């Protein structure tokens, strides 16, 4: 019917065929229309990733709980309550103050929230994520909370044209993941490693990612870079 929707369906189907079975695909759906998102869901997308709570909320009203919802953007404290209502996982927790706010919201809603700890793997200034050397301490603190469950790590890595240059940052995050897993911290279940985007997901999977977050390769180019 519409070329654009057919393109999305073909892209999703193709990608799902090439991604190993143990790797979960998060469709990074920022800026996409409801029709575009529906086309992706109809083609087998089971997790939608959003950077903004409000955009997720708008789409949640249309798509509902037939898919899982992951927060993949920087979460502001004043959006924590809405975020807890909508999301099945928050992939971007990087500080204890936000963790405490989330804990309180979860308690009020009696909802357990799986979280990933976002790692600033390239130690870039003005980038979100906890520094690799601070991650363990943060996880120990979060592990004491009752309603948040640390399930693994997430990283963006630096924006570099050559994906091979991103590999060391994925490697570093995987090493950190293994170290924390080996610590066997009570209430921490290191299961997921979320890394890799359209340009870098193949390298990320080689380096141990089992969640990849893909936008452009499914939906085509975005008008504005968010
Ligand atoms: C947009 C986005 C992606 C996907 O990026 P693409 O290059 O479009 O695949 C992945 N992760 C996060 C956090 C994003 O904001």
Number of strands: 8
Average pLDDT level = 96
Bound molecules: pyridoxal-5'-phosphate
| N-to-C series of helices and strands | HEHEHEHEHEHEHEHEH
Percent of residues in helices comes to: 40-55%
Low-confidence stretches: none
Structural class by sheet pairing and helices: alpha/beta
Helix count, DSSP H or I runs of 4 or more residues: 9
Description:
The chain has 226 residues and is α/β, with parallel strands linked by helices. The chain is 41% helix and 19% strand. The protein contains nine helices and eight strands. An eight-stranded parallel sheet has the order 7-6-5-4-3-2-1-8. Helix 1 (3-18) packs across helix 2 (34-42) and helix 4 crosses helix 5 (96-109). The longest helix is centred in the C-terminal third of the chain and has 17 residues, at 167-183. The protein starts with a helix and ends in a 7-residue tail after the last helix.
Provide keyphrases for this structure.
8-stranded parallel β-sheet, 8 strands, 226 residues, binds pyridoxal-5'-phosphate, alpha/beta
